[in-house]
Amino acid sequence: xxxxxxxxxxxxxxxxxxxxxxxxxxxxxxxxxxxxxxxxxxxxxxxxxxxxxxxxxxxxxxxxxxxxxxxxxxxxxxxxxxxxxxxxxxxxxxxxxxxxxxxxxxxxxxxxxxxxxxxxxxxxxxxxxxxxxxxxxxxxxxxxxxxxxxxxxxxxxxxxxxxxxxxxxxxxxxxxxxxxxxxxxxxxxxxxxxxxxxxxxxxxxxxxxxxxxxxxxxxxxxxxxxxxxxxxxxxxxxxxxxxxxxxxxxxxxxxxxxxxxxxxxxxxxxxxxxxxxxxxxxxxxxxxxxxxxxxxxxxxxxxxxxxxxxxxxxxxxxxxxxxxxxxxxxxxxxxxxxxxxxxxxxxxxxxxxxxxxxxxxxxxxxxxxxxxxxxxxxxxxxxxxxxxxxxxxxxxxxxxxxxxxxxxxxxxxxxxxxxxxxxxxxxxxxxxxxxxxxxxxxxxxxxxxxxxxxxxxxxxxxxxxxxxxxxxxxxxxxxxxxxxxxxxxxxxxxxxxxxxxxxxxxxxxxxxxxxxxxxxxxxxxxxxxxxxxxxxxxxxxxxxxxxxxxxxxxxxxxxxxxxxxxxxxxxxxxxxxxxxxxxxxxxxxxxxxxxxxxxxxxxxxxxxxxxxxxxxxxxxxxxxxxxxxxxxxxxxxxxxxxxxxxxxxxxxxxxxxxxxxxxxxxxxxxxxxxxxxxxxxxxxxxxxxxx
Length: 691
Ligand code: ADP
Ligand code: ZN
Ligand code: ZN
Hints:
The protein is of the alpha/beta class. It contains 20 helices and 28 strands. It has a seven-stranded parallel beta sheet with strand order 8-9-7-10-11-6-12, with helices on both faces. Strands 13-23-22-14-21-20 form a six-stranded parallel beta sheet, with helices on both faces.
């Protein structure tokens, strides 16, 4: 009999924690069950049984498991092994993976085992749901779209690729009807009795898509994302453990953690999206890559779909690691939009432009509005004005907690009356009123430079007073209902002009959009990141793809200060391969991914002296092991956030280095430094394959 349980606890400490099982619980305990245990100065903490055994730990006091919270495991063995893989690969603790994986409600101490069995518990509600679903008829074949010849060919090619590759990349231009191909593949998988995971980069995309999928798959479809309540998420989890789980899960990155018993297909839509990578907190995992691993282990097929592949995936396809299928015509053979480059430098020189709108753009917008067509304006910057400064002394308002200047917002969602001007830190949320005079020199004139989406919205409303203008950015989509309302109004033709950030570049399918304005290519191109051009190409091509999807050809105006940049010609020509070739030359020359693997090491501390010292010591230690592969330490673009000073060390590792060994050495260096008296209040964490 097993007398001890190694328990996974939601803490950043490495490994599992051993507890003894009292005689009453020992025969009932199973791997994957939740347990309640005492931990630290907490009386109880909810954990997961990771391993059962009968080896008494030596030289150590062992506390007892207090309670088993489940009759049956809520985490399957293959999930636990995935958690361990994520912890090893992304250099975090398995407890942090547990924390990210389980819905909040299941991490609380809610026993479904003994004490509360009569009440409605996740287990019983899952059973009720399951009973419901037994009454659900099969896939409604009549609602399956008839594929065009090009789509059918792509579908056949995907199958052919899967015969020899587990992962296939579908490179299909915008509005080529990739979703309809996914729908066919899903129906096939269901017919084989398999489950499907459909991963999306973010929830903005889900409502339009789930409606489309729901029309075909009805109750077989479950949705899982962070704007759902904990209870809803816990219900989906429990249902996946029940005898009749959802056949399809549509979800954002955390849905890779759901239990699947017969996974047959994973679709990663918009596979190039950066959102698949979790930035904060740990685990800093890439859900696309985790999904590929998970599918490979389950012997399931993977389809990566996008109009603008990530260079990494395209490289894998070109090297023969992934299959590659192209779909280069739009559904209904509508032409791809015509893209015109607008040279802002020239317009300024000739004094033909004042604000952010070129005469060409205004004219095209006017024509579209007159024809009752819709317009999308894209600017990669939220708020009213990105810079505020004193005209006399140059004073700039800065966040007291972070090393960044504050962004002016005119319509803070915090003020019911709207138009009060507030300044906000985009890193920590610190907000303050704009002072009436400069706190430095008393000068009453504070200058607002530049444009954010709020100011664009305001200016456009003044130029086209009859047009109905809406804005879609982080500030207007804080709730699910808010963004659904925005999309609904736009789809219903109740909005003429939609102004927005990256959000408007993503997957939206509206038939009446004829003009797209890219207000400033330069804000994207000038990002301090070796992926800036790749990203810019993706964003510009994607937002262009929102135009003219159904009837006549759409028109895109691309405003820039760098009109002769080859990258922009590549966007205009829709020449992904030219972009790929050019970027890969640079990546190879400077040894960037995919020609190396990168690991960023971040160090944080309340005091700058300590963080400096730590960065120096750690980089010296690492140089002794990894030599030239170590770069830095340096200051990241924002070197203090929420009162913590930040330093960064970068590692560029050749792909052939043994990963486990490297990661072991990194963990050891970290643990060693954190154990010293000088640095025990510092944070050191890793970002593997940073994006
Ligand atoms: P993509 O995801 O490739 O950008 P979508 O899947 O959104 O393209 O398809 C674009 C539009 O064309 C959608 O409105 C879709 O309903 C329509 N469409 C695509 N394929 C078909 C088809 N086979 N039958 C009917 N409509 C289709
Ligand atoms: Zn001043
Ligand atoms: Zn701040």
